[in-house]
Design goal:
alpha+beta; seven-stranded mixed beta sheet; six-stranded mixed beta sheet
Length: about 475
């Protein structure tokens, strides 16, 4: 067996007997300073070890060809009716999607941008509408001309009042006029207003009756409204509760619709059946907009190529007066990419305090054009340049964020004005990687701190001790 003395011979840390050592006041002071220095440096090293360190690099965007970019938005248009508001998407590859409705919701809003009811469901504004091919002159004028002075009185005299709001210059109004007058004449013959009085067809020239058409939020011509007796009471906004007709405009279709409106009404009472509620199964009739404004919210998915998101008034069978269209809007939200929860966003900002500052650059911005401007026709354009930022955390989780710059302008247009968001993605992306220090590196630094401070303190103590000894020797030599 190996003797104990041989084992002790390999001791690198041989001990000096306590009786041979001498404690000093200076050594005690240096020991305290060394201990506090070790604690302080250890704390700094621990803080550096726990702190998140990142590295940033610029690389080519590695998105695949099939990737789509999500655009979330919440935009309020104080002067655009939900009846004709359309969300369109196009890009340089030829994509052209019109009137997107599946992922978009519309709400009528008042002047304070507050929703006035549930989600607004407009009619098929892109559907081809059937018209009469020829007009038989023998029927002449059958509808009643309405104006601001007689509208309320006449609407209260008949259980059903169907009104054609038109403009003489409008192509579609002129296409409707023959069948409208013919249908009105037929309804007069079947339901004499003097004897029966259950239904009457009227017309309003919106170039003459601007106030009346504005009160009923008419923005496209022709607009056919159905007023029911007992439900056309004005509220605080001067609004009449009524329906819009989006069906075919040939004589047979119009007459059939009028007959269906009259059918539930008894001649004796002239009261609207079913509490005056619209027929929910008739897709040709929908509730008319409650107010003249519209809030549009939702999202669309687009290809990662330069393109446009356009919000405008659109219809396949209506005309719009460009001078009366106002595309002013207030943006509550406009962002690209996935929506982040508040918790995830706070974690990202903890990782990188500057991250997310340009995630919603347009949020809270207002773009208002003056409706009294004589030049009118103001298109509001936003040019957005998007940069993808990819964050790789220490747990190998990828987080994608899209930040963008925004430049906006109000431009006078020769056509019906629109709100256009032109977006373009940068071919480069920012890659942010979270780097964590290895634990072995932390332990090595701690050992270096302890050893280094201990060694430096020992050297200082030795220098101080030897200096004091030399001073004492010199003093003793002088005494002798």
């Amino acid at each position: 067996m190996v003797s104990t003395s041989k084992i002790k011979s390999v001791d690198f840390y041989r001990k000096i007997p306590r009786d041979l050592t001498e404690a000093s006041l200076s050594g005690a002071g240096l020991s305290l300073i060394a201990a506090f220095s070790m604690i302080f440096l250890f704390g700094m090293e621990l803080n550096d070890y726990l702190r998140v360190n990142t590295s940033t690099s610029i690389v080519v965007d590695n998105s695949s060809d099939g990737d789509f970019l999500r655009i979330d938005f919440n935009i309020s248009f104080p002067a655009l009716s939900c009846e004709f508001a359309s969300i369109d998407v196009s890009d340089i590859l030829g994509t052209n999607r019109l009137n997107i409705t599946k992922t978009v919701r519309k709400y009528s809003i008042d002047s304070n941008l507050k929703a006035t009811g549930s989600e607004f469901e407009s009619g098929p504004i892109t559907k081809a509408i059937k018209h009469d091919e020829e007009y038989d002159e023998e029927y002449g004028e059958g509808s009643v001309t309405l104006n601001i002075r007689n509208f309320d009185r006449i609407s209260h005299q008949h259980a059903i009042l169907v009104v054609n709001f038109y403009a003489p210059w409008c192509y579609w109004s002129n296409r409707l006029k023959p069948s409208w007058e013919k249908a009105a004449k037929i309804m007069i013959e079947r339901y004499d207003p003097e004897i029966d009085g259950r239904i009457l067809l009227g017309k309003v020239d919106c170039t003459e009756e601007i106030e009346l058409c504005g009160r009923n939020h008419i923005q496209g011509y022709p607009s056919i409204r159905i007023f029911r007796k007992g439900t056309n009471v004005r509220d605080n906004h001067g609004h009449h509760d009524h329906e819009s007709y989006y069906g075919d405009r040939d004589t047979d279709s119009l007459v059939k619709t009028m007959e269906n409106l009259v059918a539930p009404i008894s001649l004796a009472s002239q009261e609207v059946a079913s509490d005056g509620q619209p027929n929910k199964t008739d897709d040709a009739k929908k509730p008319a907009p409650l107010t003249g404004g519209c809030r549009i919210e939702g999202f669309v998915r687009v290809k990662k190529v330069p393109g446009n998101l356009i919000i405008s008034a659109r219809s396949a069978a209506h005309s719009f007066d460009a001078s009366q269209m106002n595309m002013s809007h207030i943006i509550s939200q406009f962002s690209f990419g996935k929506k982040f929860s508040s918790r995830m966003m706070s974690n990202m900002k903890r990782l990188l305090p500057y991250l997310g500052r340009s995630h919603g650059r347009l949020n809270g911005m207002s773009y208002i054009s003056d409706p009294s401007d004589s030049s009118a026709n103001v298109t509001i354009e936003h040019y957005l340049q998007i940069v993808k930022t990819e964050v790789m955390t220490r747990y190998s989780k990828f987080v994608e964020e899209y930040e963008y710059t925004a430049h906006s302008s109000l431009v006078h247009s020769l056509h019906v004005p629109v709100a256009k968001f032109h977006f373009e993605l940068s071919p480069m992306q920012v890659l942010i990687t979270e780097n964590s220090k290895p634990f072995s590196h932390f332990i090595t630094n701690v050992c270096a701190i302890i050893g280094g401070v201990f060694t430096v303190a020992g050297i200082m103590d030795s220098i101080l001790h030897n200096t004091m000894r030399m001073i004492k020797k010199v003093e003793l030599g002088k005494n002798f």
